[in-house]
Amino acid sequence: MSQVAAAVEPLAAVKSKSLRSRKRRQRRRRQIAYLAICGLSVAIFGFALATLIRPATSQEVVDDVPGNWRKGYVGHGTTHEQLGQPHWPPVEYTMYRPTTNYTKEPPPPTSAMNSIFNFTHFLYDKVLYRDEPIPEGYIVVRNADTLTLGPKVEENDWRDLLAHYWMVLIWVFILVVLIIIIPFIAVCYCCFCCCRRCRQGCPPCTSKQDAQRRFCCGICLLILIIGLIFGIIIAFVTNKMIDSGFSETSDTMKRGSEDTCTYLKDVADHVYHLMMYNYEEMETHVLDQLTHAHRHIFLDLSDTSESNSLAEMERVLENMPEALDLMRQVDKMEKDLRFYGSQLRDGVRGIKRDINFAVANLCQLQMCQKFLISSNIEHIDTSQCLHFDGLPNTTAFIAGMEDIIERKTFVIPQRGLARLKKVSDKVKTQMSFVVPPMMRDLTKGRTVFREHATNVRNIVEGVLSDIHIKTLHSTKSFEDVYERFGHDRNVVSLIVCLLILLVLFILIFALLCGCFGRRRTGYGDECCSKSTGATCLLLAILLIFCVFSFIALVGLFYFMLGMVTYQGACAPLRDQENNTLFRQLDAKIDLHHFLPAGEASKDVSEPLKMSSAIKACHANQTIFEMMRQNNIYDINDLARIKVMTHAVDDPDSVKVFDEDLSNVILLTNEEREDLNQARENSLSKYHSSLYMPSLCTQFTPMNLNALSEQLYKLSNDLEYPAYGWAKVSFWNEGLNTKAFYRNFVPKLTSLVERMRANLKKIDELISYENHDFTNTIKILTATAVSSEEFIQKRGKEYINSLGGNLTKTIDQIIEEYIDMIIKEANESVGHCAPLSYIYYRGVDLICHRIVDPINGFWVGILLCALLFLPILFVAHRLMCLYKKIYPYLATVGAAGVVEGGHWDHEPPRYHNPPAAPPSSEYERPPPYYYPGASEQD
Question: Is there a single domain that holds both residue 789 and residue 845?
């Protein structure tokens, strides 16, 4: 068993090992698969990124092929380009500021009549509306722009009109029947005494019912009176509006003329501002750029080639005498600094020695030991500011400066700049052949735009003038109405209104008397009793019978006139395209008349209709959009104007420089050797940083004044006479410390500050980008050499590139100017809303100020006439109620009558004698006389 077990154990171990190794292999495979997937993902991502970046990079490389002029710089390599500034600054145009001030329309006579006018519009547009226009012969067009009443109106021939509008026929038939019948009814009413035939009945018995009837009839009459008041107000107001509408024609024409002139002046001024004033601004800007183009190109060449280093070198070397003076001052101040510094250093060392002696021998107290430690006396002379061994040799720097000045090294960069100036002269000479043609093109362009401005102004002026004339003529529409019915119409209308007003006053007075007057008793009725009210009602009835036909006839006349004029003046506006009358009235503008002589043969589809012009104004379009849509003038044609005559695609046409610059030399070999000798002399290591570590103002670790105060305090704290010598010693050292501070620290501080200022100034004079002198000369010399190579190899190409950029910029400026004109003209110049306002103000005079009041007048008149019919019935019923006689106050069967009493203004009631036997029959009382009785009706 033990052997078997021993054999099984190795097998189990082998199995476990193989299992573990298998798991490790599986784990390794998963790791490898994961890493492979990650690597594949990275590769795919890198490929996609490269695909996305490559076009941009290639484009950038392509773009930089002509512009890779300076390492690390974009564009042409100039400094101002890196600051975001363009080579050639853009033009700043002055915006047009309009000063138009249109006349204000006078307020409408009243807005309370709008509901009445809307009612008539609804009646004509909805109830009486027909697709066919008004029959011919009632409204005619005179001179193609003015509406007048037709011959059928003059002949009172309304058959065709009534046949056309059958509802009008019914309405007119009803009115005519009433006009004819009412007089006959009036005759019958008067002849058969209907006006006095009122049944009395039994007033005491029906007093309650009579009161109710009086109340109901009074309310009905009051409502009818209110309707009359409403109608008479409408009649009076609209009659006044008719007169005002006819009288305001001249004022409206004057306002329209002024506003048209104002609008025309605004359009002309705006066009002149865009095409002349802004062009002059653009021309001045471009001419200035062309005049100074050679200087600009040369400065950019100097900037990109870094030949400005010669100017920097000249500055450094020319400043050498001034720097020498400052350095000599530094040398003198350095000697003073060393002298005063050594004295201060020796003095503080003596103070340290004496204090150490006093603490060691004269004052062995703990506070003296503590003072020695806390005051840091042991390091009082160790400050770097008191040790000037680290200062450079200023005398050597002075010698180096004197050597450079004696050798006249400053002449070297001056000669280099003079040679560079020859390159500038060559550029100027070449530009003198290129710039004048451009200037001539700009001058010709100004003439072209002036012609366009004049052309546009003439076209706009002609179109607006014709539109205005057509509008003014249309305002004279229906003047024949005023000429034909003018004064008689006003008199008749006034008579009608006064008659209605008279009836109204009588009815109101009768109603007041009937409501507040006493009842009729037959015995001495008062003036304002119900009897008076009945009389006034009878008078009103008779007056209504007399005037009804006349008022209704006048109302019918105004109804027919208003319908005809509305259908002729107002209704066409609701359906302009399909209305025959409006098509006749719609004025046509001959567009060929306004085109220039050279464009007379230009295709113009149709004459411009007034309705088309005004429809454009509905959308608040500009006058240029309207003219473009009607083929009068297209402002977009300005885009085809070519101001500059050079060919943009021809590289030879934009080449501005053709000189050979391969022989340009800025620094000769001898000059380079001289510069190398200058930078290797004794001044080579100079920089102010060599001085700064030793030029500090903390000469001691502590403030000497504070140290002296501590010494005074320590001396005062010591007891006398036990520590008298120590007390005196510390006091004396305090005095010495204060004296050293007062005599040396301010001087040393002043010297250090002046030396630092001088050294900083010397750095500004003879250093370049804060380098020491040797590196300054080395960098500037190397830059000048590389600039020379750039000019020799790429100078010509660079100048031509700048010249091409100049021509492209000028073309772009001109294109932007033309685009600005087109955009401004299409969006801002001459919004024709004022033109629409002027036109519709003339239409307003015809429709809203003449036709609407006419229709409002017949509404008021016919309303009153129709209200007369129920008033006749109600007034008659109310008159009969007012005429009833009520002889008793009490009703039948009333008790409690006081004997001997009587009613006011009535005789005493008769009673049988008390002794007489009762009788069932009525006994006639004896006659008697009572003075209070009055005649009965």
Answer: no
Question: Does residue 779 lie in a domain region?
Answer: yes
In this structure, the answer to whether residues 397 and 511 fall within a common structural domain is: no
How far apart, in whole angstroms, are the C-alpha atoms of residue 564 and residue 149? 8
Mean pLDDT is highest, among 38-52, 114-128, 167-181, 626-640, for 167-181
Domain contains 735 = yes
Cα 795 to the chain's mean position, in Å? 50
Kindly state whether residues 482 and 581 are assigned to the same domain: yes
The domain boundary residue, chosen from 758, 793, 828:
793
Decide: helix, strand or coil at residue 673: helix
Give per-residue pLDDT as tens, 549-560. 999 998 888 888
Take residue 887 and report the two structure tokens written for it.
Answer: 């002889």
**Quick check: is 312 in a domain?**
yes
User: Is this prediction's pTM over 0.85?
Assistant: no
pLDDT tens readout for residues 239-256: 888 877 777 665 666 666
- Cβ pair 454, 124 in contact under 8 A: no
Residue scoring higher pLDDT (246 or 854): 854
Cβ count within 10 A of residue 583: 15
Predicted local confidence at residue 385, as pLDDT? 87
Amino acid of residue 496: V
Structurally, the chain folds into a number of domains equal to 2
Give the helix, strand, coil percentages of the chain, each rounded to 5.
Answer: 70, 0, 30
Q: Is 478 left (phi over 0), alpha (psi -120 to 50) or beta?
A: left
Res 281 pLDDT > 80: yes
Quick one: tokens of 525? 């009725």
Residue 92 maps to a domain: no
Task: Report CA torsion sign: 140, 142, 146, 150.
Answer: negative
Report d(CA 375, CA 352) in Å as an integer: 11
> Which residues constitute the domain of residue 498?
117-197+217-247+474-521+532-585+837-882
Both 688 and 789 in a single domain?
A: yes
Q: Which of 575, 436, 558 is nearest to 862 (CA)?
A: 558
Distances (CA, A) of 900 to 72, 624, 760: 137, 104, 140
- What is the tens place of the pLDDT at every residue in 526-539? 566 777 878 888 88
User: Phi, psi at residue 669, to the nearest 5°?
Assistant: -65, -40
Q: What is the mean pLDDT of residues 490-516?
A: 87
For residue range 370-413, list pLDDT tens digits in order. Answer: 888 888 888 888 888 888 888 999 999 999 999 999 988 889 99
Q: How far apart are the C-alpha atoms of 937 and 934, rounded to whole Å?
A: 9
- Beta bridge partner(s), residue 589: 608
Distance CA 599, CA 456 (A): 13
Neighbours of 768 (CB within 10 A): 19
Res. 751 pLDDT band, cuts 50 70 90: very high
The answer to whether the CB of 832 falls within 8 A of the CB of 621 is yes
Residue 608, SS3? strand
Same domain, 122 and 221: yes
Q: Is residue 280 pLDDT above 80, yes or no?
A: yes
Backbone angles phi, psi at 277, to 5 degrees: -65, -45
Domain shared by 775 and 856, yes or no: no
